[in-house]
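This section describes the prediction task in plain terms. A model, or a person checking by hand, is given the sequence of a single protein chain and must write out its three-dimensional structure as a string of tokens. No templates, partner chains or ligands are provided. The sample shown here is typical of the held-out split.
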Amino acid sequence: MPERPARILIVDDNERILDDFRSILLPERVDDGLLELERELLGAASPSARRAPDVRVDFVGQGREARDAVQRAMRDGDRYKVAFVDVRMPPGWNGIETVQELWKVDRDVQVVLCTAFSDFSWQETVDALQHADRFVLLKKPFEPDEVLQLVSCLCSKWSVIQSVRCHMDRLKQTVHERTQELRETNTALQRQILEREAMELELRHAQKLEAVGQLAAGVAHEINTPIQFVGDSVHFLQEAFDDI
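The expected answer:
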């Protein structure tokens, strides 16, 4: 199945900033014929006419709205890959609080913290969020190329994380299945060992009985021979006495 366009969330209380993101991520589509004509006349398309990344973008103005949007996305199975979050958003949650709430809902969403001020130092931000590998800082005013680069890199990172997690889940399932097979094989081997030990015990018992039988036969033979000799001698003496 082809992968759907990446879903992006923009969280900022400043409508002008939201418009900036719209112009970068959702520019008006330019007709392919015009692009081809410009390429023929100028040799290359102008930067303003370059295609935007294939993304779907949602815009909200406050942290609570952002959390609700992420909850709906999780429920619908159409998760956000990247969230651009403003640090200052009075009167509601600030950017740090918003990100903490977003990660309670979806731990994998990659975050770009946008700020024009030094409200929080890097260390304070790391201490508050605990996951320095899940967010980056973007200083305002930002360049369009910075936004496009972050979208591209972080969406790729999100996809890699999901791929690795899926692979790990498959490995865990395979290990579980192999472990179950080994348990079943071990149980069968234990049963076979017990059956073999029982058979060996019966065999040793039969061998002992056979040995006792052979011993009894030998003793009987040894007793029978003198008795036969004595009997023959008595018979001979009886005949001798009769003759005398």
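For orientation: Strands lie at 6-11, 55-60, 82-86, 110-115, 135-139.
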